[in-house]
Amino acid sequence: MQDHQKKLQHQTGFTLIELVMVVVVLGVLGAVALPKFVDLGTSARVAAVNALMGTIHTTANNFRMACALTSGCDISAQMGTLTYQGKTYGMNYGWIGAGTSINTNLIDTAIAYSGFTVSIANPNTIFKLNSAKNPATCSVTYGNAWATAAPHDYTYSINTSGC
Fold it and tell me: Could you list the residue ranges that cross the membrane (predicted)?
């Protein structure tokens, strides 16, 4: 009998209360952390739209500088052209053009926009994110400078409500 009592005294393990507490703590951590991980898709789509807008800004400014440094490209002209890296692009007041047609050497042919669908709503070019919950409201819009008053700057907008 004493041997049996010694075995009972030396047995180790978790009690039922300890196991229940661990399950409760894990449940609370899961409930707090899970929404943060679920929302990562939306954050990634918003980041993709913002990255494309950065690409558009950089490209527009590069074309503007190239136009200012190239004889025959007049940054004060409503309509003009610039031959840049072997292609002739449409320009508006020294900014690369947008919003007249796709694949005619305007902003859509000057940038890489993989994962986006491009469309025209003259005087704008609209880039819609294909993987968005609602691509129509997860987009970047680039507008022609001739559609604005002096000093004639290109326009842009970002819509991330449907990302």
Answer: 12-34
